[in-house]
Design goal:
flat; 0% strand
Amino acid sequence: MPLIAIAVAALAVGFEQLVQSRYGPMGIIAFVALSIGIKAKNTTIGGVGAVILVMLLAQSG
């Protein structure tokens, strides 16, 4: 069980670094808002984070 938790944490940190390097501070803000929204089961905050991430993805593509 601890090995799975460490692997998940490493993947989350790696994804966060990828978002930051590619989309800058706004990507981190969106990722944090999405994470907080999911953990707190708050659809408003999660939705705002998701919309910002989608807008950043659409802008770069």
